[in-house]
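[step 3/7] fold_predict: job queued, chain A
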Amino acid sequence: MQVKELSDITGVNIETIRSYRKAGYLRPVQKSNGYYDYDMESLITLIWIRKLRGYTMSLNEIYNYFFSQDPEELITILNQRKEYIESEIIERQLAVRYIDLETRHIRETAKGNLGAQMFQSIDDKIDVYSLENRSERFKKLQFSLTPTVFIPKEVLNGPISRYRIPVKIGIGTYQYILDERGIQRPKDAVVVPNGLNITQLLILRNFTEISVEELAPMMTYAKANGLTFQSDTTGYLMRIEIIDQKPVFHFRIRACVQQNNIRDPLIKNRKRK
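[step 4/7] structure written:
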């Protein structure tokens, strides 16, 4: 059969089949007209390769798998793939959880609902604002990191005015995620403790400075209810919107007003290290 027919039967891209042939995995007979004739051996081999690729094996691992005569080596290759897939399952489950968080943030701060709100957080939030070695500290966390906005609690508990304060941007994650990864909390981390928080939407068009008046929703809410901010802010970048060809950053910022031990149902039974 010709390569197109083999591709139609197996669902493997023609160029991929040709790369397997060039690598020596497939051994079709080349006819006088230059075309290759793929037989049943090629079909069976290609289906086998496709299965191994489905195990996320690299071509190098497949090569070793083909030519190894040691059963223990074969088992080692399979176990390595199993461990990799299991770790990927954990990462995908975490991605699903963050999608749920994104959905919740967007729903709770939908248009027409931009004022301050009270809500229960899911765990301690751990933010880092120093630039040194930032990538090394959190490089294992990938999409479980979010940009954060730092505003000191002294500002939040102070008067509402037109005074402008510098914007301080960092990155953050949750304590339970650090625990799951066995990552030690950075010594210079800003911790927003688990508990009741006042939150609002903060829209930034630059990262230089903001007016304290932009924090009026959460500051007014706290004062009206006799509450004092016990922590600095953290933030959650909900989206980046392009307006007039320029990015506009939508942060949901929050600060704790009452600490508690209420944990998110999905993480409350996990042992804190």
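[step 5/7] annotate
The longest strand covers residues 246-259.
The mean pLDDT is 87.
exit 0
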